[in-house]
Amino acid sequence: MDTPDTWSVVMPVKALTAAKSRLADLGPGPRSALAHAFLVDSLAAVLACPAVSRASVVTDDRDVADLAARAGADVVTERPGSGLNAAVAYGASVAAARGELRVAALVADLPSLTAVDLATALRAAAHHHHAFVPDAAGTGTTLLAATGPAGLAPRFGPGSAAAHASLGATNLSRVVHAALATLRRDVDTLADLRAAIALGAGTATTSWLDRWGALAEQAAG
């Protein structure tokens, strides 16, 4: 069971071979390796965050499950093909069964994420029944938090920031006196990747860049 001041973080992750479809110009091998690096760096920040009592990766992919377990996260086996929001809801239900009342869902493509930004957002979320952090564009969602799993109500996907706000979730970017830049910078495109690198990418993503950076520049044209 979590303590009154910490959170259980749920991270839904699909098969890395199918991830980051908008980076298809990189080719399947480098694209899959980049998704792997994003997950490693995102998980490292989560597990280093003092506001997090447990990190759970929800997946139906064995490679993702093995990676998560090696990193020190719990693994929740998702029903194949259930979809992102269903995976989040299922992960939250598992957390509820463990007695964890503060649950947050976090995307796994945050290569620049710092434990400081995540802790800042989660501590602010503790003052709201339902809260979210929008992505850098302001339309998507990178973090969704609730002080009871029944209130998580995930609506990830296109227009998710507006969808979560319409359900009464507080936009933490408007109430936190911090930029939360590393928490808001998810990566779907090569332009996003450049922005993440400018913030300071994690070690796994940096290693990917050492090997494949030239290919990324070529793909960017």
What is the fold's blueprint, element by element?
Blueprint: E1 7-12, H1 28-48, E2 52-59, H2 62-71, E3 74-77, H3 84-97, E4 103-106, H4 115-125, E5 130-134, E6 141-146, H5 160-166, E7 170-171, H6 181-184, H7 190-199, H8 203-220
Parallel strand pairs: 1-2, 1-4, 2-3, 5-7
Antiparallel strand pairs: 4-6, 5-6
Helix pairs in contact: 1-2, 1-8
Tell me about this structure.
The structure is a single chain. By secondary structure, this protein is α/β, with parallel strands linked by helices. The chain has a single domain, classed as Spore Coat Polysaccharide Biosynthesis Protein SpsA, Chain A, CATH 3.90.550. Helix content is 43%, strand content 16%. It has helices at residues 28-48, 62-71, 84-97, 115-125, 160-166, 181-184, 190-199, 203-220; strands at 7-12, 52-59, 74-77, 103-106, 130-134, 141-146, 170-171. It has a seven-stranded mixed beta sheet, sandwiched between helices. Helix 1 (28-48) packs parallel to helix 2 (62-71) and helix 1 packs antiparallel against helix 8. The longest helix has 21 residues, at 28-48.
